[in-house]
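ok here's the first one, seq then struct tokens
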Amino acid sequence: MLQNFSVLMSVYIKENSNCLRQSLESIIKQTLLPNEIIIVKDGPLTIELDDVINEYCGKYPMLFLVIELPQNKGLAYALNEGMKHVTNDIIARMDSDDICIAERFEIQIKYLINNNLDIVGGQIIEFSSDIENVVSIRKVPLSHNEIVQFMKFRSPFSHPTIVFRKNLFEYLKGYDATIFPEDYDFFVRAYLTGFKFGNVKENVLYFRLGENLSEAIKRRWGRKYAMNEMKLYRKFLRLGFFSPLDFLKVLIFKIPLRILPFSLYSYIYFKFSR
């Protein structure tokens, strides 16, 4: 019999209430159900979002715990706050606009326990307006060693898919809210501390890009993103995860991509980066 586990989700004002409902419904209909779903309101929400959260809390009062933050502080801060209220040893991440495959938690938690791992992710199906409109499938490596090699150039997990152990989070003191992307930094620090990784081969999540694909990928483009990425890579060099050669490689091959004309960046992103 599998042990109890928690689901951790953050919601902020720009989310869509219909997407949130789909996301929560996909959790409730899992073949292996959590006994705790923690929702962090990252600042005040719209009436529509609050109505959806209140509806599910009313239906499942023993299942949901809602944490309200007075102002929007960003995903890393919200997840750190939510983790303070987790009571189980295993936690599954979930974004408020994605949709779980029905067997997601059963597949990943079995894999985590049976292989004595600390973080387990999975493959994702990226879609636009609805799950019939598939844009791409993001494939990530499976074994710990493959993941570590992959991590030298990009994040080895799709963040909304991860299932992880509470002791890992506590040891690392959570996400670094001063770094972006905070998940990539979190995974590198976990590796350097000796924690073990895996990804299941199955698709476990429908990842919503949204109807406007250009807007979806603009979050990973531009001078501001390049500056944040540079800050992250300097930290990797300082921590010893990057050698000077590794650092040089990302400076040459990754940073320039962020400041290409957007039409060219968009083509490269969908053609070669999935």
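and now the second one, same deal
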Amino acid sequence: MKYLIKITILISLLVNIAYAQEVELKNSKYDITQCIKVKYTKEDIENYKKLINQGELQGYSCAGIYYMRQGDFKEAINYFNKGKEKGSIESYAQLGSLYSSFLHDDKKAVENYKVAANAGDGKSAHNLGVYYYKNFNYDEAYKWFMKSYETGDMNSLISIGLMYIDEKKYDEAINTFKKVGELGEPRGYRSLGILFIKNKDVKNDKEGIKYLKKCYEMGYGKCASSIGEYYEEDKKDYKKAEEWYKKGFNLKYKGAVQKLGLLYEKILKDYDKAIYWYEKGFNKLNCMNCAFNLAMLYNIDIKDYKKAEEWYKKAADLKDRGAMYNLAYMFEYDLKNKKNAIIWYKKAAKLGHEKAINKLNDLGVSYE
């Protein structure tokens, strides 16, 4: 009888393996980015289930992403596996991400990424490249980055350039970044500019600024900000730094206006201008860090706790758990309001803020 049970199990496994091999891997034209949101409602999961009932392959991945973002990894895996059974390449890719980013199971992540990557999914090939890069297996990383690049992913070509820098193959890195820029991706020129400015082995500020300006002229605001940082940090030329940070802001780069606010706040000690640019960054570009920095300015330097509370809450609305924690800390220590402190520590703790969790433990309060 025992042998019969073992044979039955073996036959079942062989049938499942054969079935898995016969499943045709498929892509869908449905845009999966529609299912990636900052906030979800119960209506969202109902809509994803309707997609499944309508025969839309991406419905399984959408439902899986929904549960993954809610922290229900068991249910997420369930939906991704159902998608895999239907041949969904996206489900393999998303399951790889879940194992990699949340469950930290590299073996299972790599298994799923490889299926998706070999079926033509560029982002999975890129993620495999990153995995092997981090583990110093450059040959394997190069193979997967190239596979990703062949699907049109410029990030992988940039990653190859960065890998060459790690190996001190500077000529190869320079040629790779130039190729990226010549293909119309400004980040290639930015990477080249940063290499010349920051790396002592090939340092050439003039060349670095030249490529950052080429990048800026392509409309990439981050390059204007990088030039601003060069003038602020390397040359202490704050007027030039202001000029370039403003150019970055005009190209809608949030980091530039944040750096401008910090320049006025920390170095030039002009709080009025710092407040002006932080507010402008938040109101015009929805810059979360601008709201957080402004709250800190009101809290620590100006001691206007009402204004600090207002701006911490604006950042908290954008899911900034650091703002939630700081607001709780301000309530506890500056305003002596333990009740409100606990409310905000709990909000931060639910988003995984370790210090907030420790604070609640110290206060003898559960955040569940």
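notes on #2: Residues 1-21 have pLDDT under 50 and may be disordered. The CA atoms of residues 10 and 299 lie 66 Å apart.
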